[in-house]
Design a protein that fits this description.
Blueprint lengths: L1 H8 L6 E7 L5 H12 L4 E7 L4 E6 L6 H10 L4 E4 L12 H40 L5 E2 L2 E2 L3 H7 L1 H13 L3 H12 L5 H21 L10 H33 L4 E5 L2 H4 L18 E5 L8 E4 L8 E6 L2 E4 L1 H4 L5 E3 L4 E2 L4 E2 L4 E7 L5 H14 L5 H33 L2 H11 L2 H6 L6 H15 L2 H21 L2 E3 L2 H8 L3 E5 H5 L5 E7 L5 H12 L5 H12 L7 E7 L3 E6 L2 E6 L1 H6 L6 H12 L3 E7 L2 E9 L6 H10 L3 E5 L4 H8 L9 E2 L7 H10 L4 E5 L5 H6 L2 E5 L4 H6 L2 E3 L14 H34 L4 H4 L5 H20 L1 H4 L7
Parallel strand pairs: 17-24, 17-26, 24-25, 26-27, 27-28
Antiparallel strand pairs: 1-3, 1-4, 2-3, 5-6, 7-8, 7-9, 9-15, 10-13, 10-15, 11-12, 11-14, 16-28, 18-23, 19-20, 20-21, 21-22, 22-23
């Protein structure tokens, strides 16, 4: 029993999330192979691989396996890998700085390797193109029946020349395809290169046999391997260029991260620095600071930032003033004035003056690092619709190999006997080419026809399009969102957004500015308005609710000191209690006071209703068991709240208002928003918000919840899609599926509420691109493979040559990436500006 108890009480092992850079993936089959290799390792809980960014995100138990071991496993499996350092990695130990530099150097080496691979790819394409041109010149041996000197003789009398071209195509530009295809077959995870290799080698081998044994009467088609290699390499190069364009926005975001910070060593001397950046006394720019890596800055340290520098960390200006370009975060084109006490964000650009700032967030905690982490996470989380493609991709190559085998067997053993005209037809087509007619004086062999159809099946199949369908659209969509301050956590979120029919807005701090002010202070009994406000501010000093802050600020503006109080207690969603001069004081809602046994006279309730009908939140104050007065607080709607609600309704969504206020106050707030009484959820306790969302879901609704506070977190988690404002709490941001990061240039309105509309528009558009890509990838293979297998040959005499099949395959992959890139032109923000 004791052992069982220990096992039950043992803590769950802490999980670690690792990011690995993985090279060598060519198609969805490779992605599946990498994921299988990772998930088979002990201690690995989950693995998600992105073909476009060549990144694997692994969740594992560090006590079982380390990132270096996982990288070694993948490298041995044919996918060179290395562990990427965590964002903002830092250490206070100076001795570890060398290790950090080594890790940075490793990342630099990885980028250099990818650039080198791209250069080699371009070189292979150029060489393949030259061979393709040389091979194609043979078809120009005659023009209008007249022989071209030189070319005519080479084509008709020197077939060994074409053998040489085909051999060079396989050995030089095609070598990487053949080697990778063989490795995939050897490790029991065949990929697209395996299919291409088998098709190319089959065409080459059949041509060699025809050349060496002319009595068979087979055709020599050495131009097919050359065209296969050339078209496939060209398609991959175009695809890689398009993928680089898709990733450019994210790479630009990563490039915003500052590398160097100027650490002020003598803060006392720094305080003598004036706004122009000139120093007084002995402290000067040459000796007063120490340049250190930005990821080694510690919270609380002072940093110098000169004009033209990027802000190295999130911080607060302590000396000087300047203007800062925050377009990367806010989308605002105008620079923002920064003075002592203002906050600045890492990655933004200091423009006009030298300042000193105190670091408040460093490393992975900076706003920029969080944006990058969220965007990268979004690019690896797959949409449920992608599971179809993943399932197909896992068996795709084996299926194509099987279909190619069946194609050869069917046409050789049955098809050419059932439809003998296909051989005559093929012979007539080839006879129209004088060169081909010279090389083959008999009808097409059933073996040769069957082999060419099987080769076409191998080459036309495109698992790559399936693998690129989702990640390319996600890459473009998430990067486009990041540019606009919209962080969408992944493909699964996009699919949920697509099905939304209801949007719930929390009132305070979401639809409203979250900066309420006291408008009325109505005393009863012996207290006057000043004493009532002073007592209320004293009791509310024990909490940080927006209404409490408004009451405290009102007291501060009148210069009222706080009284001696004790025994503070907060009832979330209801009110606050404390003891002042041995008398209990309760501040909260009318219902809560009545629950505590306090009677509300009819006159008091009448005044409270009048205040509520004007859109004000009413707070009751009770002293020693008697109502001592009412305090009314008003919170203004955000400037774009009305337009936001109107746009959401226009998009076919139902908008609901959720608040803890009484119905009269909620109705007054809802009227300018154009909401009906049936769209108002009033008097909801903080712990009841999630229940409201759950009830709507049980009625069949797909619900989005928009909020910003800690008490919104359960509802954000319960909703199908949680949307959090970045000005809110960290708990809400961590819980939400979409985070609105953009800050406005006006301090009183730090959030663009219209970004809720933009995030839904972007999600819908991105998900539509994913569906288009998957439909095209699946439809292409479903149609292309049967056509390549000869389904149209008996009736229409149509058949794909291996070269045309290769061209179609290359076009399929490129078209998916290009369609994703079109997302930048199909998403329009004009209607929501």
């Amino acid at each position: 029993m004791q052992l069982s108890s220990k096992l039950t009480d043992s803590p769950t092992p802490a999980l670690q999330t690792l990011t690995l850079d993985v090279r060598g993936m060519k198609c969805a089959g490779c992605v599946k192979a990498v994921e299988d290799q990772l998930t088979q390792q002990p201690g690995v809980v989950s693995a998600c691989v992105n073909l476009v960014t060549e990144v694997a995100t692994v969740e594992c138990e560090p006590s079982f396996i380390q990132g270096s071991q996982l990288a070694q496993v993948l490298t041995e499996a044919g996918f060179p890998s290395q562990v990427r350092p965590a964002p903002g990695w830092q250490s206070s130990d100076p001795d570890i700085l060398g290790e950090n530099q080594l890790e940075s150097a490793a990342l630099t080496d990885l980028s250099a390797q990818r650039r080198l691979e791209m250069q080699q790819q371009v070189g292979r394409v150029v060489l393949a193109a030259l061979l393709l041109v040389a091979s194609g010149l043979g078809h120009l041996g005659q023009v209008n029946g007249l022989p071209i000197p030189g070319l005519h003789n080479i084509w008709l009398h020197n077939i060994w020349f074409h053998w040489g071209l085909a051999t060079l195509a396989l050995v030089l530009p095609g070598r990487s395809i053949l080697v990778d295809g063989w490795r995939g077959l050897r490790r029991n995870s065949p990929n697209m290169n395996t299919l291409v290799s088998l098709g190319t080698l089959a065409a080459y081998g059949a041509s060699v046999v025809a050349l060496l044994v002319p009595s068979l009467g087979w055709e020599c088609f050495f131009d097919e391997p050359v065209m296969l290699i050339g078209f496939i390499l060209l398609g991959r190069t175009l695809e890689q260029q398009a993928r680089s364009r898709a990733a450019s926005a994210f790479q630009a975001l990563v490039a915003l991260q500052p590398r160097i910070a100027r650490l002020i060593q003598d803060q006392t001397a720094a305080e003598q620095m004036d706004g122009t950046g000139k120093q007084h006394g002995e402290w000067n720019a040459a000796t007063g600071y120490l340049e250190i890596p930005a990821d080694r800055v510690q919270v609380g340290q002072w940093l110098q930032v000169l004009p033209g520098d990027k802000i190295p960390v999130d911080g607060e200006v302590v000396i000087g003033q300047t203007t800062v370009d925050e377009a990367m975060l806010t989308g605002e084109a105008f620079p923002v004035l920064k003075q002592p006490g203002d906050t600045v964000t890492a990655g933004t650009l200091n423009q006009s003056g030298a300042i000193a700032l105190r670091a408040t967030r460093t490393g992975k905690d900076t706003t920029l690092a969080q944006i990058i982490a969220l965007v990268e996470t979004a690019q690896t989380r797959k949409a449920p619709i992608q599971r179809i493609a993943d399932t197909v991709a896992g068996y795709f190559t084996y299926t194509v190999l099987g279909i190619a085998t069946l194609t050869f067997g069917f046409w050789y053993f049955a098809g050419t006997h059932i439809w003998p005209q296909v051989l005559t037809h093929s012979s007539a087509v080839m006879a129209s080419d004088p060169a081909a007619h010279h090389l083959m004086s008999v009808a097409v062999s059933p073996v040769l026809l069957s082999l060419k159809l099987a080769i076409a099946v191998l080459v036309v199949a495109c698992p790559c399009a399936l693998g690129l369908a989702t990640p390319t659209a996600l890459l473009v969509g998430s990067s486009l969102g990041a540019e606009q301050g919209l962080l969408i956590r992944g493909g699964d979120v996009l699919e949920k957004v697509h099905h939304l029919d209801t949007v719930i807005f929390d009132k305070t701090g979401t639809l409203t500015t979250g900066q309420p002010t006291v408008t009325d202070c109505i005393p009863f009994g012996t207290l006057d308005a000043t004493a009532l406000l002073q007592i209320a501010a004293t009791v509310e000093s024990g909490t940080r609710h927006p209404l409490a802050i408004a009451i405290q600020q009102a007291a501060q503006q009148q210069g009222l000191p706080l009284l001696n109080a004790q025994h503070f207690q907060t009832e979330p969603g209801f009110g606050v209690t404390a003891v002042i001069d041995d008398q209990p004081v309760l501040i909260g809602t009318g219902d809560w006071l009545q629950q505590q046994g306090i009677t509300l006279a009819e006159g008091i309730q009448t005044q409270a209703r009048a205040l509520a009908l004007s859109g004000k939140t009413v707070v009751y104050v009770a002293v020693a068991g008697e109502v001592a007065g009412l305090i009314a607080v008003s919170d203004r709607l955000r400037p774009d709240a009305v337009a936001t609600v109107a746009h959401l309704k226009k998009m076919g969504l139902r908008v609901l208002l959720l608040t803890g206020d009484q119905a009269e106050t909620a109705i007054a707030i809802a009227q300018p928003l154009g909401l009906e009484s049936t769209d108002i959820l009033a008097g909801i306790r903080p712990d009841g918000k999630a229940e409201v969302v759950s009830q709507l879901q049980q009625q069949g609704h797909r619900v989005a919840m928009v909020g910003d506070g800690t008490n919104d977190a359960p509802a954000l988690a319960q909703a199908d899609v949680g949307i959090a404002l970045h000005s809110g709490t960290d708990v809400a941001i961590e819980t939400a599926a979409i985070v609105l990061m953009r800050m406005g240039k006006v301090r009183s309105h730090p959030i663009q509420l219209m970004d809720v509309v933009k995030s839904i528009q972007l999600s819908r558009s991105t998900f539509n691109k994913i569906r288009q890509n998957l439909f095209w990838a699946l439809a292409y293979n479903v149609i292309g493979i049967p056509v390549a297998a000869g389904i149209l040959l008996p009736s229409f005499g149509l058949v794909l040559s291996p070269a045309v099949a290769a061209l179609m395959m290359a076009f399929s992959s490129v078209s998916v990436v290009l369609n994703s890139l079109l997302l930048r032109h199909t998403v329009s923000w004009n209607s929501t500006q």
